Amino acid sequence: MRTLPLLALALFGGFTGCAGPSLPPFAGSYQHAAVAADHEVASRAGLEVLKKGGNAVDAAVAVSFTLSVVRPESCGIGGGGFMVIRFSEAGVADQRRLGRSVPRQVALNYREMAPWAVGPDFYEKEDRFASTHGGKAVGIPGTVAGLLTAHEKFGRLDRAAVLAPAIRAAEKGFVADESFVSAAKETAADFEKNPAWKERFRFVWERMLRKGKIKIGDVITNPEQASALRLIAEQGTAAFYQGPIAQAMIETVRRDGGVMTHDDLLRFRVASVEPLTFQAFGRTFLTMPPPSSGGVAMAEAMGILGLILEQPLRETQEKIEKNNPPRGFFEAIAAPGGMALPYGPMSPWYCHRLTEALKHAFADRAEWLGDPDFVDVPVARLVSKEYTGLLARRFQPERTLPLDQYGTRESRTLTSLSEDLGTSHLSVVDAAGNAVACTETINLGFGSCLAVDAFGFILNNQMDDFTTRRGQANAFGLKQSDRNLPAPGKRPLSSMTPTIVLGERGEVEVVAGASGGPRIITGTMQAILQRVGFGRAAWDAVQPPRLHHQWSPNVVRLERGFDAVDGATGVSLVGELQRFGHRVEPISGVGVVQMIARERGEWQAASDPRKGGKPAGY
Q1: Above 90 in pLDDT, residue 334?
Q2: Is the whole model's pTM more than 0.85, yes or no?
Q3: Is the peptide bond before 291 cis (omega within 30 degrees of 0)?
Q4: C-alpha to C-alpha distances, 453 to 132, 203, 230, nearest whole angstrom
Q5: Residue 99 contacts by C-beta under 8 Å, 6 or more apart in sequence?
Q6: Of 149, 252, 423, 524, which residue is the catalytic one?
Q7: By the 8 A CB rule, do 493 and 371 touch?
Q8: Staple partner for 155: which of 122, 151, 348, 528, CB 3.0–4.6 Å?
Q9: Is the pLDDT of residue 10 over 60?
Q10: Side-chain half-sphere of 588: how many Cα atoms within 13 Å?
Q11: Please, where are the H alpha helices in 126-201?
Q12: pLDDT 10s digits, 37-69
């Protein structure tokens, strides 16, 4: 499939490709291997492990443990996540030499579980903060189990080697950057509104927020977490789920009114599953199945989008050279005489179609998705050509639909949408071509704000991702069905979307994912489309403004940059979307994407400038 030339995109969107010395500071191009994380220290940790002879899994584990130290507002050993792994043929052969038989691709689910004392009505009787702050908000953490499972099954180095960078970062400290300070100030404002939290969540208030006086350049050390990481390096999962760390964790949670027990910790299990695989725009996508909603929503939205992008091509076929008939939208807009300007990625034409596809996917997310170990999730139907075709046929080129005509459910309107600061994504490709996409979270910024002081880590508030109160939205403005009610050992629905895209010959072409609550889905999808559809370099794929629509609230939110009037056509995107019937509002950010992409024998890597990360590689 040919892609739209960067020159044509530059004419419309104002972004051009970069090469050589002109690479932006958040990007890199590497011959052998690459790591993209949302903090430079974490990316360098992955590079260090790769250069020691580790593979992509070793590097991913090292990056994640380091992120636990340097992005405590976003993720950490008190949280959980998902990991998608793709082995190259050389990688499979290497695993055989280590005495292992591995699949070409696998997904690890180490999403938090509900404590066994939590049932469907648990939060109905609690105050409004019970699912977001303190001990009752904490799900059984899965990050340590997930990372060490991946390392034990697929890594090459020993635990000490992959944990060494994180231990060093905890001891030496990290410099508070703009992203960290912004998250800390937002959380500090909540503490000022709730003064009792300053004592209740003292570790976060004093050590992370500096009593509301945190500033860029402050150095934050965490010797307590260094001691926890050393125990994990020495003893493995037993150090976290048994012994002194477990004891301190349970005492912390129960002292704050939570119900998690030692037995709950011992019951935690990592699930090894087949990735959700689907075809779109000439590529094969590997991503997470439920309880992640991201893979299903992206597959459904891309299926619908691919069909509705084709509709005007049949009407304007005469505008395309007869000797070059398009097989798809992206080929057509790259055709001679082209349609680049009116059909580009920042055009009303394209944004309307993208938004309508997303609305269907998010409507179905709300109705049908949950933990497949507890409820029937009709994944095959939701991503099928028959179903996406049915939804695509509802599309109207110049108007929106009534809210209840998206997906297959009744209309429910919401009004709020929270910022997400509590997720992090990392992408890794090694010299053998093995790839890892990994997204991890403690949910909201600084999670539950409850820390295990003696070991320096913050516990998640993942329980808020359940349907905690029937008919009410969670912190991200998502109202979800009873399929997502809490139950003992159940995992809450997630938007995390770690994704690996394969080319025509099965080679890794893109590794991507994002942070940002439900905007993970929209951010990841748009960045990938910028790359595989519009032909942009990795750094130009993650940088342009993005939009977000999650079906309800019925608002399309646009990042800064969409509000300009195109000089060539005089078209206002906002005005045109409003004419089609969209309610339009600004938004500060739509996901923070970390991407690695193959281009002319090298790996392009980009850490989304929205959070200030920087890639590494060699």
Answers
A1: no
A2: yes
A3: yes
A4: 19, 6, 16
A5: none
A6: 423
A7: yes
A8: 151
A9: no
A10: 10
A11: 143-154, 159-172, 178-193, 197-200
A12: 999 999 999 999 999 999 999 999 999 999 999
d(CA 24, CA 608): 11
The DSSP string of 448-460 is TS-EEGGGTEEPP
Does residue 135 contact residue 78 with C-beta atoms inside 8 Å? no
Is 423 one of the annotated active-site residues of the chain?
yes
What the block records as the tokens of 28 is 């890199």
**Among 556, 589, 591, CA closest to 574:** 556
Angle, helices 573-580/348-368, rounded to nearest 10 degrees: 50
DSSP 310-327: HHHHHHTGGGS-TTS--S
Task: Find the radius of gyration of the CA atoms of the chain.
Answer: 23
* Alpha helices (H) along 156-271: 159-172, 178-193, 197-200, 202-203, 223-235, 237-241, 243-255, 262-267
**Phi (first) and psi of residue 606, to 5 degrees:** -145, 135
Quickly tell me which residue has 């395309």 as its tokens. 320
Tokens linked to 613? 């990360």
Average pLDDT over residues 450-476: 87
H helix runs in 71-134, sequence order: 89-97
Q: How many residues does the chain have?
A: 618
pLDDT above 90 covers a percentage of the chain that reads 81
CB within 8 Å of 497: residues ≥ 6 apart: 287, 288, 292, 294, 295, 297, 298, 439, 513, 514, 520, 521, 524, 525
Query: So what's the pLDDT on residue 468?
Result: 82
DSSP string, 329-365: HHHHTTSTT--TTTTSTTSHHHHHHHHHHHHHHHHHH
| Closest to 457 measured CA to CA, from 73, 41, 139 | 73
| Beta-sheet strands, E only, within 465-507 | 499-502
Please tell me the distance from the alpha carbon of residue 410 to that of residue 395, in angstroms, as a whole number. Answer: 18
In the chain, the amino acid numbered 460 is N
Hey, which bits of 358-507 come out as E strands?
422-429, 435-443, 451-452, 457-458, 499-502
